[in-house]
Design goal:
The structure holds two protein chains of two kinds. By secondary structure, chain A is mainly α. Chain A has 17 helices and three strands. Chain A has a three-stranded antiparallel β-sheet with strand order 1-3-2. In chain B, strands 3-4-2-5-6-1-7 form a seven-stranded parallel β-sheet. In chain B, α1 packs across α3, α2 packs parallel to α3 and α14 runs antiparallel to α17. The chains are: A mainly alpha, B alpha/beta.
Chain lengths: ~350, ~475
């Protein structure tokens, strides 16, 4: 995994090493989301949920030792020239995701578990096998799959499910054959327990970390497929899909805001701290900028004012107002997001 | 009883697919059916799960099985599933919220309930069991009751009280290894009078497992020795390591150095990956598993031909448990312990525990200090404090336990360095005598370990894989048309 981490860093832009770690593990604080967006790595949110602190720190330390990365006192890292060269050299081995734009659509670990059990159940059923060891998942997941199978139970259940899986596999194969090969071979069913990560790595000639990213990509593609196309997969996975890139609570705050309520009013209605509502709006500014009424939140006059104070690349700015001025910091951060590129 | 007689044999044959009982099984089942509290000490691989599964089908009500490790429970649950039994549930810390309430609300519907001791100590859970007819209470790995101290689950100490709260149901205590002293201690801690308990003991000896120790000169030498052994014996085999990291590294190394399929299997591997590895190993698609001792492996495979220890186990009890995975089919198998001078330091590091001073313990008990000051093992010490053990008593017990661990390690080292018969040494340790020496006994009796006839693995059964995803998908769902 060590050298594959280089892809998250830049030669020009110092990047906080904790932000990179938190993004991969899907830690959704506004600060993480903001910096991830600034670094252009937001789509990697949740791409390696099981990454451990020890492994990550070990990888960073090793990159520093090899003089591929430089980490400053504020724990920000820059690629060295040697690092850039190694990264370029490694590029062909690094997996290039196709579906990470859907990063917000689902927790891919949960999606995969449910899919695997469902495929196993239908596969064993297709071979008329009743005595087998089901994949052990949390009780509620097992119940969900059981219920799904009961609802779809008919003489054509196997064929329908096969058609749906085939349509999906063909779709991802047209994007990258590897996706379909790994997807089908990792499935669990009659007489096969599916590829482990190591086996996929051996077969596809990919390092383990990259196999993890490949599988994350397959699952995001599946999520997008299930969100759009009706069929057994949609019935199975639909309940696990998010309807918005925003958390539920942020959606509610944003809704009230769009209906014209002020931050203070929303906080009162929802019994939240005003600052929590501000965080919700910042989350919306990062994740769904098009849904925000920028003119209302950050009027031209305020932008002019801020532009006098903050110049140059937005990521280099430091908040200059008083530390306890929450509204001031909120406006600063909004402006930073506004200028930071996403919203032109 | 005549009815039972017929039923027992019918069940054994129809439900479990066995023609006859293995040594110790029938006596134990009869004692249980006679409503006696029973302690069965049967060696690993003797078929302990049958002892409660079979009565489970004869009694009305629910069998509760207390098990210390999720992986052990999982193994049992898997086995019951394979037999087509679906009235099985596992109650542990992973089951929370509404799911847990739902299961607790319908406990009586399950024939077998597997539960961790700490879960069973929970008031809500006990209340739920009060509404259920308990046909049998089973304590798996019952030696844990006797392992007072840091290396096991203190909740086992609560079992006497829990059993009483459950209405003193008929109880079956199961263990693979227990010295006579430990047996006595188990009964005492459960509050059972020895005269009221049927005790069934089978020899711990596994005569079809050849015992060997290989001395190596250091890490590199040991690694080469391991490679040679794996190449020689092929598989199925299990190799034990002291750390997850090394287990993973060595699995990768062995994969690259041999033509075998090797996988690491430990607590750091996800549930889905564990499932894959387990199934592949069962089907001989994987030949070698690199495991950690700390992780109870939920694999019940009859034809494991060898168990190699890359590091020392903590004591002879654990060693016997771990090598007991080999040769359950009765065929010649081999257990090899690789040793290089100083290996005991690793083991000592793993089992050492810093006992906090009595004054500190006392202050935590009085709430003057946060439990966090007790260090890494804070939860453990807190448990004893919460259950009204005096600080001085705790410190004394832990220090004693520490000394005992060291003694056990020394006894293991004596096994390693022994130039006498290794089998006799082990039997003596468990209070037994060697009755008959097998033809292939140990490396000290047999001049040449290479003469031990180990059936090397059948042809390598490659993992079923294909780049043709479409045909693989058809095969998966049994679709014949193109």
């Amino acid at each position: 995994m060590t050298e594959s981490m280089l892809r998250f860093f830049s030669y020009q832009q110092p990047r906080r090493i904790r932000v990179v770690e938190n993004v991969l593990k899907s830690r959704r604080t506004v600060a993480n989301l903001f910096w991830a967006q600034q670094y252009g790595i937001l789509p990697w949110l949740g791409a390696n949920r099981r990454l451990s602190r020890a492994d990550y720190d070990h990888a960073i330390a090793s990159l520093v030792e090899q003089e591929l990365l430089r980490v400053d006192e504020e724990k920000q890292a820059l690629l060295t020239e040697k690092g850039v060269a190694v990264l370029e050299n490694k590029r062909p081995q690094l997996y290039e995701p196709s579906f990470y734009a859907w990063f917000w659509l689902a927790n891919t670990s949960r999606l995969m578990e449910r899919l695997l059990l469902a495929v196993q159940v239908v596969s064993e059923y297709s071979y008329h096998q009743r005595k087998y060891v089901p994949l052990q998942l949390p009780y509620s997941e097992m119940q969900a799959v059981k219920q799904w199978f009961r609802q779809n139970y008919s003489p054509t259940v196997v064929k329908h499910f096969y058609d749906d899986l085939h349509r999906f596999s063909a779709a991802i194969a047209s994007e990258d054959e590897k996706l379909a090969v790994d997807f089908v071979n990792m499935l669990v069913g009659h007489g096969t327990a599916g590829w482990t990560l190591e086996q996929a790595g051996q077969y596809l000639q990919m390092p383990l970390t990259e196999v993890g990213f490949l599988r994350h990509d397959e699952m995001l593609a599946l999520a997008a497929y299930a969100a759009k196309l009706t069929g057994p997969l949609q019935q199975l996975l639909g309940p696990l899909l998010n309807t918005s890139p925003l958390t539920h609570s942020a959606q509610l705050s944003l809704g009230s805001y769009q209906r014209g309520f002020t931050i203070g009013q929303i906080a009162k209605q929802r019994r939240l701290k005003e600052n929590t509502v501000r965080e919700h709006l910042l989350e919306a500014a990062i994740m769904t900028p098009d849904q925000l009424k920028w003119e209302q939140l950050l009027p031209a006059q305020l932008r002019d004012q801020l532009s006098q104070q903050y110049k140059g690349a937005a990521t280099g700015w430091h908040y200059q107002g008083p530390a306890n001025d929450n509204q001031g910091f909120f406006e600063f951060r909004l402006y930073q997001i506004y200028q930071g590129g996403k919203h032109d | 009883m005549i009815d039972y007689e017929k039923k027992i044999n019918q069940l054994l044959h129809d439900q479990f697919g066995f023609a006859r009982f293995r040594p110790g099984q029938e006596e134990t089942i009869r004692a249980v059916l006679d409503h006696r509290n029973t302690l069965a000490v049967l060696p690993t691989g003797a078929g302990k799960s049958l002892l409660y599964q079979l009565p489970g089908y004869l009694f009305a009500g629910t069998v509760i099985i207390i098990s210390p490790l999720i992986s052990l429970m999982q193994d049992q649950v898997d086995r019951l599933h394979r037999q087509g039994e679906s009235a099985v549930v596992m109650l542990n810390g992973q089951l929370v919220g509404p799911e847990r309430r739902r299961v607790l609300g319908q406990l009586g519907r399950f024939r077998f309930v597997f539960i961790s001791p700490e879960m069973l100590a929970n008031e809500t859970v006990l209340a739920a069991f009060a509404r259920v007819k308990i046909s049998l209470l089973v304590v798996d790995e019952a030696h844990c009751i006797s392992q007072w101290g840091p290396d096991f689950r203190p909740e086992y100490l609560l079992l006497k009280e829990i059993r009483h709260r459950l209405g003193d149901p008929r109880t079956l205590l199961l263990t693979a290894t227990a010295t006579p002293a430990v047996r006595q201690d188990i009964l005492a801690k459960m509050g059972l009078a020895a005269s009221d308990v049927a005790v069934i003991v089978q020899s711990v000896d596994r005569s079809n497992i050849f015992l060997a120790v290989k001395n190596t000169t250091g890490q590199a030498d040991k690694q080469e020795e391991l490679l040679a052994l794996v190449n020689k014996y092929q598989g199925p085999g299990v190799i034990y390591f002291a750390s997850r990291k090394l287990a993973s590294q060595m699995a990768a190394w062995l994969t690259s150095k041999t033509t075998l399929n090797v996988a690491a299997y430990h607590a750091g591997v996800t549930a889905v990956e564990r499932f894959r590895i387990q199934e592949q190993f069962m089907n001989n698609q994987l030949q070698v598993i690199c495991a950690t001792s700390a992780f109870g492996m939920g694999i019940d495979k009859n034809d494991i031909r060898y168990v190699i220890h890359f590091h020392l186990p903590s004591n002879l009890e654990n060693y016997l448990q771990e090598i007991g995975r080999a040769g359950r089919d009765g065929k010649q198998s081999i257990a090899i312990l690789l040793y290089s001078a100083g290996d005991e330091l690793i083991q000592r590091q793993l089992t050492t525990i810093t006992v906090p001073p009595v004054e500190i313990l006392a202050q935590v008990k009085q709430g003057k200090l946060a439990p966090a000051v007790l260090g890494e093992q804070a939860d453990l010490f807190s448990f004893y404090l919460q259950h009204n053990f005096a600080p001085a008593q705790i410190a004394r017990a832990f220090n004693r336990r520490q000394q005992q661990l060291e003694r056990e390690l020394q006894q293991l080292l004596a096994y390693v360095h022994s130039d006498g018969c290794r089998r006799e040494y082990i039997l003596h340790y468990f209070g037994e005598n060697l009755r008959a020496r097998p033809s292939y006994c140990c490396d000290n009796d047999e001049a040449d370990i290479d003469e031990v006839p180990i059936e090397t693995s059948l042809s390598t059964h490659p993992t079923d894989t294909t780049a043709d995803w479409a045909s693989q998908l058809r095969r998966l769902l049994n679709i014949t048309e193109r």
